[in-house]
């Protein structure tokens, strides 16, 4: 997990250079620096904020080559009612337009391993592509299991195959749905698994690997995890030691909203617990972690919380604000 970072708030203008068809309903967008210079560096697993013309902000994984400092590539899926879909797939965001981007951040760090297993659902392949490229460059064996409704809809499949690992496509509507538990049962013990895709796939991988050593399975969530039905949370207090404020957080409001209403200006982006922008240090109290970023040990350490979704499991939280 990144340290709480001022970089989260950094933005810069970038030129949308190209829009390329990838697969049905998926377009790739290539951005360059507005002045033609180098872009800030990124690592495999990084994502960035894209500020859409209506002022909303969406996060996308960088799926290009980190060694190419001139281009950022992201992929946007056509989602019914999605804001980015409207701008990208309906042609409102065209090549030549200048867009505000946030500096890349990484909550899905690529780490050295003896072998990698990448499990992706559809556009969930995007953060994994730079990892496959890095693994190939390092001479480390890797396998990709890519799931899609139909094999023709598997995004970036040609690019993944060209990277030299073992690639298999699992198409649910063609009778080759991935048997997650069966496929993961025999994975070698030194495997590091990275997974990104829809919740159903991620939960299946999580369940099948529940007994794997901590840290050997990494997930990147694009959207918030579902919460248990009927879950309730009472009012609790947050004490902000540096500003001397104590605030009540009612059940229907987030910690983030309460802090920002009090003028504390906590930065935020996704408001779904998936990007890490609103992370705040916790000095006392027990957090009810509801984000999709922190690992089990980071949750247990209770040192930080994502204020957009996480709440208190104790009557009071003391925050370093
Ligand atoms: S704003 Fe993205 S995790 Fe809170």
From TrEMBL:
Family matches, as PROSITE patterns: 2FE2S_FER_1 (PS00197), 2FE2S_FER_2 (PS51085), FAD_FR (PS51384)
Keywords linked to the UniProt accession: 2Fe-2S, Flavoprotein, Iron, Iron-sulfur, Metal-binding, Oxidoreductase
Gene3D superfamilies recorded: 3.10.20.30, Nucleotide-binding domain of ferredoxin-NADP reductase (FNR) module (3.40.50.80), Translation factors (2.40.30.10)
Protein's UniProt keywords contain Iron: yes
Pfam families linked to this entry: Fer2
Ranges where the 2Fe-2S ferredoxin-type domain occurs: 236-321
Keyword Manganese found: no
Residues in FAD-binding FR-type domain copies: 9-111
GO molecular-function term, one example from the UniProt record: oxidoreductase activity
Name of this protein: Oxidoreductase
């Amino acid at each position: 997990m990144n340290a709480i970072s001022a970089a989260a708030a950094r933005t810069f203008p970038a030129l949308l250079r190209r829009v390329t068809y990838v697969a049905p309903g998926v377009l790739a967008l290539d951005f360059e620096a507005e002045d033609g210079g180098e872009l800030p560096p990124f690592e495999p697993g990084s994502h960035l904020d894209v500020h859409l013309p209506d002022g909303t902000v969406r996060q996308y994984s960088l799926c290009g080559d980190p060694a190419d400092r001139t281009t950022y590539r992201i992929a946007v899926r056509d989602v019914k009612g999605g804001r980015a879909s409207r701008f990208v797939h309906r042609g409102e965001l065209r090549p030549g337009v200048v867009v505000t981007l946030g500096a890349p951040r990484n909550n899905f760090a690529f780490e050295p391993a003896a072998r990698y297993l990448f499990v992706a659902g559809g556009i969930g392949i995007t953060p994994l592509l730079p990892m496959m490229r890095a693994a190939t460059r390092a001479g480390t064996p890797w396998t990709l299991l890519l799931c899609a409704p139909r094999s023709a809809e598997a995004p970036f499949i040609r690019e993944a195959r060209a990277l030299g690992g073992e690639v298999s496509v699992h198409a649910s509507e063609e009778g080759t749905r991935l048997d997650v538990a069966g496929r993961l049962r025999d994975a070698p013990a030194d495997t590091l698994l990275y997974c990104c895709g829809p919740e159903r796939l991620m939960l299946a991988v999580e369940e099948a690997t529940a007994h794997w050593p901590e840290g050997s399975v990494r997930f990147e969530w694009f959207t918030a995890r579902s919460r248990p039905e009927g879950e309730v949370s009472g009012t609790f207090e947050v004490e902000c030691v540096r500003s001397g404020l104590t605030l009540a957080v009612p059940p229907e409001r987030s910690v983030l909203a309460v802090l920002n209403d009090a003028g504390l200006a906590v930065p935020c982006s996704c408001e779904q617990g998936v990007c890490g922008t609103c992370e705040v240090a916790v000095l006392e109290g027990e957090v009810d972690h509801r984000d999709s970023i922190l690992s089990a040990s980071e949750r247990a350490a209770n040192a930080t919380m994502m204020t957009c979704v996480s709440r208190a499991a104790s009557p009071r939280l003391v925050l370093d604000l």
